[in-house]
Amino acid sequence: MNLTADQNDALNKITNFLQSRDRQIFILKGYAGSGKTYLIKIIAEYLKKNHIDFYLAAPTGRAARVLASKSGMNATTIHKLIYSEKSNEIIENENAEIIWHFDVGQNDHSINAVYVFDEASMISDVESDDNENLRFGSGRLLHDIIEFVNLKLEEKSKQINRKIIFVGDPAQLPPVSENSSPALSGSYLNKEYGLKSVSHELKEVVRQVGNSHPLNAATSIRNSLYNNRYNSFNINNFVTPLPQKEGFFTNWSKIDDKKIICYSNKIAFEENLFIRKNLFGNEGNQILLGEELIVTSNNYYYGLMNGEFVSVVDAEENVENFERTLKGWDKPTHISFRNVKIKSINEKSEEIVQNVKITDHLLWSGERDLTKEEFILTRIIAEEKEGISYPRKKHFSNIKEYNAAKKEYFKRLRESPYFNALRVKFGYAVTCHKAQGGEWENVFINFSGFSAYSNEFFFRWAYTAVTRAKQELYAINLPHFTPYSNLLSNPDDMNELAEFEEVNIPEIEIPPHLRKKKKKRIYLK
Q: 62 and 309 in contact (C-beta within 8 Å)?
């Protein structure tokens, strides 16, 4: 076991933490290439050797597979670990919307179990405002993790000593709608939950940097983030720039195990259409064998989560179309469904093939998700197909009969393939948040869409994007700027400036007789 001094220090802190009773959480932070996952493997082996129950989990199925592969241990998604498959029910929320709700599960693990959560920068602690008809626990993943592990019970019992280890990269994008990653913040965990933590940040890069273009690019961006310096961005030496259209497709089509990462859903949608047009030509209006799709919303009916990639095994040509003008709306609402056979890979790297019904119209739409009208119409179609309608209290003589009718109504909805239709998009190009937790040999980054580059968000976005690549990086509209960029009137001068920046200018002592001369202002034209 060859550990760096930095890793060895972290391991010593972790073993001391596991034996302590006054700290509940350990936060292990580290940039790309610092050996975080290798350290997880060492920790898991230590726990196994000492007969301590432990559980490895990550926010997405793909991240869980990466974790299992690199650690050599079983890993699962956080949702499968902490939410109950048995205690689920369909309920109405305050807006009379139908929600499939899953409670936090009962934890019957040992009293000294250890929970290791990788990719913890992705763990959110705010309720999602997405149009979801599926809700897990409180809607706040971090809150539900802490509830499931039952760390609060430790304060009341001298016997219980469960521990959490959060592992993550502090330079990556924080969860959507949050300014920072709460699971990687000891002060946040203490303020919000009253929990005490220990932390360690791995700073030494142990993965071979020399020929690794992604790691070199990540290191450059990371240094800017570390120093809060956002006036210079130059990763040109580590990225292959590409033209935006035909030339781009030529390069893309020759490479395997690849993904295009974009700034927005709109740009990802346009890139997907462009790729499909070049791949399939006039056949592009059909879903074809081998196509890659991405799940855009959690779907428990089929056991697939938001952000998971699936491939098409077969697809029916016929589409079920429905159009209605809903009460209170002037324009008709249109939705469609298609039966598709898909293949997915679970966190154990097992292939799962299943027949699913998808919301076909969403696949071809520029919208990120279903509209409110489409949600309502989906429920109406599901009711018609199941031959049910929502029970009205006035139609029942007593509350017991009314509640029984509602229970039966919700049961039938829960079994409806229309109500639970899988929401997917084409998965050739995805947003950076959707790509988090995944790795591909080759990553194409489209830098279009930003209103400004000289800010922390852009640098975190770029860092997260480049660290998705294992081998090579390709870029469309790659920005390059320096502190002097705004002084240049001609953009073509940037290449000369880049060369100028690499020149070492020797320090020259100014003679005394010149020091009192009036300074001349020099303007760059």
A: yes
**What confidence tens digit (pLDDT) does each residue in 70-128 have?**
888 999 999 999 998 766 666 665 455 667 778 899 999 999 999 999 999 999 999 87
Would you say the pTM of this structure is higher than 0.70?
yes
Run of H or E residues at 376: helix 372-386
Q: Which residues, other chains included, contact 376 with Cβ-Cβ below 8 Å and sequence gap of 6+?
A: 326, 333
Between the two ends of the chain, the Cα-to-Cα distance in Å is: 58
E-strand ranges in 178-303 read 197-202, 240-242, 258-262, 292-295
Least Cα distance to 204 among 354, 9, 424, 403 occurs for 9
320 Cβ contact list (under 8 Å, min separation 6): 336, 337, 338
Nearest residue to 422 (alpha-carbon basis) of 516, 520, 306: 306
Q: How far apart are CA 143 and CA 125, in angstroms?
A: 6
Cα angle 286, 289, 291; round to 5: 80
Mean pLDDT of 190-210: 85
Strand order in the sheet with 114-117: 75-77, 54-58, 114-117, 163-168, 25-30, 197-202
Instruction: Delineate the domains of the chain, giving CATH numbers in brackets.
Output: 5-202 (3.40.50.300), 239-426 (no CATH)
Let me know: does 202 contact 39? Beta carbons within 8 Å.
yes
